[in-house]
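[step 3/7] fold_predict: job queued, chain A
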Amino acid sequence: MAHLDDLISTDILGYLSAQENKSFLRFITCGSVDDGKSTLIGRLLYDSKLIYEDQLASIERDSKKSGTQGDKIDLALLVDGLAAEREQGITIDVAYRFFSTDKRKFIVADTPGHVQYTRNMATGASTADVAVLLIDARYGVQEQTRRHAYIVSLLGVKHVVVAINKMDLNGFDQAVFNDIEVDFRNFAKDLGFEEIMCIPMSALDGDNVTTSSENTKWFKGPSLLEYLESVDVDSATLDSPFRLPVQWVNRPNLDFRGFSGTIASGTVEVGDEIIVTPSGKRSTVKEIVTFNGNRDIAREDMAVTLTLNDEIDISRGDIICKIDAPAEQADQFQAHVLWMSEKELYPGRQYLLKTTNKTVPASVSNLKHRVDINDFSEVAAKTLGLNEIGVTTLSLSAPIGFDAYKDNRATGNFILIDRQSNETVGVGMLDYALRRASNVHWQDLDVGKTARSEQKNQKPALLWFTGLSGSGKSTIANLVDKRLLDLGRHSYTLDGDNVRHGLNRDLGFTKEDRVENIRRIGEVARLMVDAGLITMASFISPYRAERQMARDLLEEGEFIEIFVDTPLEVAEKRDVKGLYARARAGEIKNFTGIDSEYQAPENPQIRINTVDMSADEAAEIIVKYLEDNGFLAGYDS
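[step 4/7] structure written:
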């Protein structure tokens, strides 16, 4: 490297000690498209003499082929490493770079400015201490500037540098700088930033990047690097309550049992009293074990294993806290969600929620509103699309330990995962627990499912009939119901059309209403199964995620998926209600099979082909399945 520290040649141990004890700062560059984010990072590295000489030679060669600065070195190429980025002159992925000065160590994330890559920008901001928000001096505050400012505020970044870039193109006009600063401060006054530092600069030529510029003698503030070297971001987190999310229960032998993880906030000492969330178990710290040996005290960001003086039950995903400041626990929350998928968010659909080291099934029970990032107004919405931000209520299948995101970023954040594709579809920040939820408990009843089923001499089940409109679902379900009645069994049929006259009369046929339709039916069917009934549910239920949601409400083996597999052309020929003809004519919107998707079951318990068999034959196949699998032979407890 061009940069050499004198200590390297004179006192290598002293040099290593100095590096180890430097403070550490994570920051991101963000802002609108082509504001100069990658160029700014390249300039920081170049002026700090932190580029390997062979790397510099490579960049010089690439500048001639892919650069955007004419005969000058295109410093943006230092971080725009993807071929597509170099060809288009934009940032797509998040690029991380490490560098160090005499005063501090840094990790910088160069994040994309394009709207379609906002999710990538949020990823970079989630661990940042400082956000460097670039603004092109020619254009001022743009919509993407506001979006990124709002997102970094949501993600808990308290220190913002507004780098008003390309000032050389306006002759370093102070009036231009002042107008943009006033505009941004007015916009950001309610975003909760502790500090906003505005700096005029030219990343291309290095003005006010690492040293103060002669071109802006009217500016009395620090250069960007001077600010980054001096900003204090450590004190607040060390003063936060102690949190250790358990990643692994370390049990190498019978004589050792420890709980491993990275300390999310605060400090811990040997002898401290601890409490575990959500179980509430208590003990005291016996040892703090690290890779470099035992310690008497450990702090945030350290990977440790704690041993305790008592044998208590602790699992992966639990949070170890000090007794005087435990984390909260709840299973219902209000939360902000940034949606990261091209598939829209639908209230009622089940996802997996992952926070710290714990993953639980969860659903967005209500979308309160979408946030307009231009003026922070609340916009009524039924769904969230890609890069949109909304305020939601979440319902989890089990309680988790947590802190409000504003109090602790590590234990207040979460991601939402699609259960079918395992794609991360959303990131979120927990605002608070819904207190009313903590006052609602399951009531123990003396008469349960077992007693009700034994009384009826059957095992309860939910027979879920799915298929296109006109496939014959309702006809077959009705025949099964009649056959069970003849056998002296207790059953009931929930039919898609019938429930829309009462329970679901307020729902339409949009995708979000279809999701809610099946969510409600799943809950009703669960109650019927709990009553010991063999329940038929005959619904198109076009989406696998909602059918899985209904399955997850029941015990293993109680959900029987029956795919009434009828080709679209056959269902259209039957068309006894005339619905397909009206859908083809455009009179009915969101009709399954025409302009709305149907996701066929992949592994149904029973597949019925109504082309090759009659409805009576199909009903007999289903009843025989129930007999062969013990549903009609009495309840085996």
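[step 5/7] annotate
The chain has four domains: 6-232, 240-322, 328-436, 449-628.
The two ends are 73 Å apart (CA to CA).
exit 0
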